[in-house]
C-alpha cells in the first residue's frame, strides 16, 4: 500500500504546527504546573476554523476530511498532550454524535456553535459502575410530560466543566440492558446540573476533567438524540471515531518526545562522540522512528476508511491500541536518552512521559480495544454475567433508613434513638485529630459544607458524637479546610471504624470505597438523590446548617466526654431480634448473608422472599457470585 498525504494535508499540518509552536508551547509548562485550561488558545483554534475541522461548512465546520482532523490533534499533542485531547474530545465526542444522529434543529442549535468554536463540547458516558462495561449505565432519564428527568452522575468527563454542551447517556428503559440506554444533549447551566470534583491528574493537566452531577435535571424531549434505546449504539459509533483522535494524540505525544530525544542525542557528547552515534542509542532511535511510522499509517488509514464511509471500527481500535502502546515505549526511550536531565520538571520529555499514560486508558482501555479487535476477527465472545445485572451499592448493602418526613427535630430524634439502639454510647469521645485509620468514629465534611466557617458545625458535631474529623477529597485538597491526611477515600485514608457521619458528601465512588468497611454510615445531605443515601444505614435529608446544630444538641449529655475505650468493631446494624426460624445462606465468595427479611430490593427481590425462591440467575449483590455458590449456615 502506498500512502501519501496530500499537499493540502501538509499545508494544514504546517499551519497547526506553527500555531502549536507559537501559542501553546511557550505556555505548556505553566499550564501543566497550574493544572490550567488554555482558554485563549482554544478560542484562537476556533477563530482558525480548527474546532469543527471535519464538519460541513453549512454547520459551521471547515469542511475538511477525517485525516485533516487527525493531523491537527497530532500536531497539537506534539507540543502538549492536554491541548490535543481538548480538541479530540470536543470534535469526536462532543460534536460528532450531534452531526451523525442529530435532527436538523439540533444541528443548527448545537453543532453550529460547537463547530465554530464558540462553544465547547463534551461526552458523558463513564460512571462509577460503568467504565469498560459501558452498558452498566445507571444514570436514569424518566419521561414526564415534555421533559425527561435526569438523575445520576458521570465521572472522568474530559472538557468538564469548561464545556457548554454535553452528550449524556442515560437509562430510559430499565432492566433491558444496552437497548434501554438513550442519548441526550444537555446544556451547562440547567437547574440541577452541577459539577463535582475537578481531578488533579498525573498528566494532560492542561485539559480539564470533572464529575457531572444530575439532580432532577429537566431535559426537553426535543433534546433526545436519535431514538429512545439507541443511546448505546450512538456511544459505540462515536467512540469508533473518537479512538482515531486518541490515537493521534498518542502519536503526537510520542512524536514530540522522539524529536527532543533525537536532537539531544546529536548534541550530547559522551565517550568522545554524540550519543546518537553510539549504537545502543542509534538503535533506540531507529526503533522509535519505525514505531511512529507504523502508528501513523494505522491512524491515517483508519481516518481514510472513515472518510470514505467504509467500516473502520476495528481499524480505529487497532490504531488507538497500537499508537498508545508504542507511545509509552517511545516516551520511555526518549526520557532514557535524556538520562537524569530528562527526569527534571520542566523538561518536555518529563511531561510527555506523564501525558502518555492516559492514552492506553481512556476512550476504551487497550484491553477493551483488543476485545473490539478480537470480536471483529473471531466474532463476539459470549458474556459471563452481563451488563443487565445491577451491581450493589459501592459501600455494600446498607439498612437505608432515610429520614425525609417530619420536622428536623423528629428526624434527628429517630436517628439518635436508632444509633443508641445499635449500641453507640455518646458519653465517650476521642481526639478530633485521631488518625482516620484508627478512629472509632468520624464526622466528615463534603463540599456541601459551603463556607469555611461552617467547619465549626462539623467540629461541634464531632465532639458530641465522640468522633474525629474527616472530609471528602475536595474539602482537603481544593478547599484546604482540613489537612490532606484527613480526607477519606480510596485515594486517601480508609475508615475501618464503626460510625461514619458524612455531612454534605455526595458519595463519589472513590469516597464510598474508602468507607465500605464502616459498621454504620450516616448521611446528611440536602440532595435526596445524592448517591451517599444508597450507601448509608441512616440518612437525614436536610440542610447542614439546620440539621447539624440540632443533631449536635441531641448528642450532648451536658457533660464532657469520657475517654473512649479501645475501639471494638461492632456488628453491622442488621441485628435480628430473634434467631430466624428459616435457614440462612452466606456467599462463599465474600461472606454476604442473604437476609430473607430484607430481600434484595436493589435487584427487585422483595422483603420476605426466601433464599429458595430467589431466581436462579440472582447473584450476590456484593461480589457477583452465582446463587449456587451460597452455602447454608
Ligand atoms: N457501533 C454501533 N453499534 C455497536 C458498536 C459499534 N461500534 N459496538 C457494539 N454495538 C452494538 C452491538 O451491535 C449491539 O447491538 P445489538 O444488541 O443490536 O446486537 C449493542 O451495541 C451491544 O453491543 P455489545 O453486546 O458488544 O456490548 P457490550 O456491553 O458487550 O460492550 C464494549 C462492548 C466494546 C466492551 C463496550 O462496552 C465498550 O466499548 N466499552 C468501553 C467504553 C469506553 O470506551 N469508554 C470510554 C469513555 S469516553 C472517554 O474515555 C473520553 C475521554 O475521556 C477522552
Sketch the major β-sheet.
6 strands, parallel
First and last CA, distance: 67 Å
**Shape from CA axes?**
globular
Gyration radius over CA: 27 Å
Count of DSSP strands: 21
* Proportion in β-strands: 15-25%
Low-confidence stretches: none
What portion of residues is helical?
Answer: 25-40%
Q: Whole-number average pLDDT?
A: 93
Please count the helical segments: 15
Instruction: Walk across the major sheet and give the strand order.
Output: 11-17-16-15-13-14
- Pairing-aware structural class of the strands and helices? alpha/beta
Q: What ligand molecules are bound, each kind once?
A: acetoacetyl-coenzyme A
Write structural notes for this entry.
The protein has 633 residues and is an alpha/beta fold. Helices cover 39% and strands 15% of the residues. The strands form six sheets. It has a six-stranded parallel β-sheet. The chain is globular, with a radius of gyration of 27 Å. It binds acetoacetyl-coenzyme A. Acetoacetyl-coenzyme A (CAA) binds at residues 85, 89, 93, 123, 125-126, 132-135, 156, 158, 178, 232-233, 236-237, 239-240, 313, 362-364, 368, 371-372, 387.
Question: What is the topological layout?
Answer:
Blueprint: H1 7-34, H2 39-47, H3 66-79, H4 81-101, H5 104-115, E1 121-124, E2 140-144, E3 147-158, E4 165-171, E5 181-187, E6 193-198, E7 209-220, E8 224-225, H6 231-267, E9 269-270, E10 273-274, H7 279-307, H8 313-338, H9 348-356, H10 366-378, E11 401-403, H11 408-421, E12 428-429, E13 441-445, H12 455-465, E14 468-471, H13 473-477, E15 499-503, H14 509-513, E16 520-525, E17 538-541, H15 544-555, E18 562-563, E19 585-587, E20 593-594, E21 630-632
Parallel strand pairs: 1-4, 11-17, 12-18, 13-14, 13-15, 15-16, 16-17
Antiparallel strand pairs: 2-3, 3-7, 4-5, 5-8, 6-7, 9-10, 19-20, 19-21
Helix pairs in contact: 1-3, 3-4, 3-6, 4-5, 4-6, 6-7, 6-8, 6-9, 7-8, 8-9, 8-10, 11-15, 12-15
Acetoacetyl-coenzyme A (CAA) binds at residues 85, 89, 93, 123, 125-126, 132-135, 156, 158, 178, 232-233, 236-237, 239-240, 313, 362-364, 368, 371-372, 387.
Amino acid at each position: 500500500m502506498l500512502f501519501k498525504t496530500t499537499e493540502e494535508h501538509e499545508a494544514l499540518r504546517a499551519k497547526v504546527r506553527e500555531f502549536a509552536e507559537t501559542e501553546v508551547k511557550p505556555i505548556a509548562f505553566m499550564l501543566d504546573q497550574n493544572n490550567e485550561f488554555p482558554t485563549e488558545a482554544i478560542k484562537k483554534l476556533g477563530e482558525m476554523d480548527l474546532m469543527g475541522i471535519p464538519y460541513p461548512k453549512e454547520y459551521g465546520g471547515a469542511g475538511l476530511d477525517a485525516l485533516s482532523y487527525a493531523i491537527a490533534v497530532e500536531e497539537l499533542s506534539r507540543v502538549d498532550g492536554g491541548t490535543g485531547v481538548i480538541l479530540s474530545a470536543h470534535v469526536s465526542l462532543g460534536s460528532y454524535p450531534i452531526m451523525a444522529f442529530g435532527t436538523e434543529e439540533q444541528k443548527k442549535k448545537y453543532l453550529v456553535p460547537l463547530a465554530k468554536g464558540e462553544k465547547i463540547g463534551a461526552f458523558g458516558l463513564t460512571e462509577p459502575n460503568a467504565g469498560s462495561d459501558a452498558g452498566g449505565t445507571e444514570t436514569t432519564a424518566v419521561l414526564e410530560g415534555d421533559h425527561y428527568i435526569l438523575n445520576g452522575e458521570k465521572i472522568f468527563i474530559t472538557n468538564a466543566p469548561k464545556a457548554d454542551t454535553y452528550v449524556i447517556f442515560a437509562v430510559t428503559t430499565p432492566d433491558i440492558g444496552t437497548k434501554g440506554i438513550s442519548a441526550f444533549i444537555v446544556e451547562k447551566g440547567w437547574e440541577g446540573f452541577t459539577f463535582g470534583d475537578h481531578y488533579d491528574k498525573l498528566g494532560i493537566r492542561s485539559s480539564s476533567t470533572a464529575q457531572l452531577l444530575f439532580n432532577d435535571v429537566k431535559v426537553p424531549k426535543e433534546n433526545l438524540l436519535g431514538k429512545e434505546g439507541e443511546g448505546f449504539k450512538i456511544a459505540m459509533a462515536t467512540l469508533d471515531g473518537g479512538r482515531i483522535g486518541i490515537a493521534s494524540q498518542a502519536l503526537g505525544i510520542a512524536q514530540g518526545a522522539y524529536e527532543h530525544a533525537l536532537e539531544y542525542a546529536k548534541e550530547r557528547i559522551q565517550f568522545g562522540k554524540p550519543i546518537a552515534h553510539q549504537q545502543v542509542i542509534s538503535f533506540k532511535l531507529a526503533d522509535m522512528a519505525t514505531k511512529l511510522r507504523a502508528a501513523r499509517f494505522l491512524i491515517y488509514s483508519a481516518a481514510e476508511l472513515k472518510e470514505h464511509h467504509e467500516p473502520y471500527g476495528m481499524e480505529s481500535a487497532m490504531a488507538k491500541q497500537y499508537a498508545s502502546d508504542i507511545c509509552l515505549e517511545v516516551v520511555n526511550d526518549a526520557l532514557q536518552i535524556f538520562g537524569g536531565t530528562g527526569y527534571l520538571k520542566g523538561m518536555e520529555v518529563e511531561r510527555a512521559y506523564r501525558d502518555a499514560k492516559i492514552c492506553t486508558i481512556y476512550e476504551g482501555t487497550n484491553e477493551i480495544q483488543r476485545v473490539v479487535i478480537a470480536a471483529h476477527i473471531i466474532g463476539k465472545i459470549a458474556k459471563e454475567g452481563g451488563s443487565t445485572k445491577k451491581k450493589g451499592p459501592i459501600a455494600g448493602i446498607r439498612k437505608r433508613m432515610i429520614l425525609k418526613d417530619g420536622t428536623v427535630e423528629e428526624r434527628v430524634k429517630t436517628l439518635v434513638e436508632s444509633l443508641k439502639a445499635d449500641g453507640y454510647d455518646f458519653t465517650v469521645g476521642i481526639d478530633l485529630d485521631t488518625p482516620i485509620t484508627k478512629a472509632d468514629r468520624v464526622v466528615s465534611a463534603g463540599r456541601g459544607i459551603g463556607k469555611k466557617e461552617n467547619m465549626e458545625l462539623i467540629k461541634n458535631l464531632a465532639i458530641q458524637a465522640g468522633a474525629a474529623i474527616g472530609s471528602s477529597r475536595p474539602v482537603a485538597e481544593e478547599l484546604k479546610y482540613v489537612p490532606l491526611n484527613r480526607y477519606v477515600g480510596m485515594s486517601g485514608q480508609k475508615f475501618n471504624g464503626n460510625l461514619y457521619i458524612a455531612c454534605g458528601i455526595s458519595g463519589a465512588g472513590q469516597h464510598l470505597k474508602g468507607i465500605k468497611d464502616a459498621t454504620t454510615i450516616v448521611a446528611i445531605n440536602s440532595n435526596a438523590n445524592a448517591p451517599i443515601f444508597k450507601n448509608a444505614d441512616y440518612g437525614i435529608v436536610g440542610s447542614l446548617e439546620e440539621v447539624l446544630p440540632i443533631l449536635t444538641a441531641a448528642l450532648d449529655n451536658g457533660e464532657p466526654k469520657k475517654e473512649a475505650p479501645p475501639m471494638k468493631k461492632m456488628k453491622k446494624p442488621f441485628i435480628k431480634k430473634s434467631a430466624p426460624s428459616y435457614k440462612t445462606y452466606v456467599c462463599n465468595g465474600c461472606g454476604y448473608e442473604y437476609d430473607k427479611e430484607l430481600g434484595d430490593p436493589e435487584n427487585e427481590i422483595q422483603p420476605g422472599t426466601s433464599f429458595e425462591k430467589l431466581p436462579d440467575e440472582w447473584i450476590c449483590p456484593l461480589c457477583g457470585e452465582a446463587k449456587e455458590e451460597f452455602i447454608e449456615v
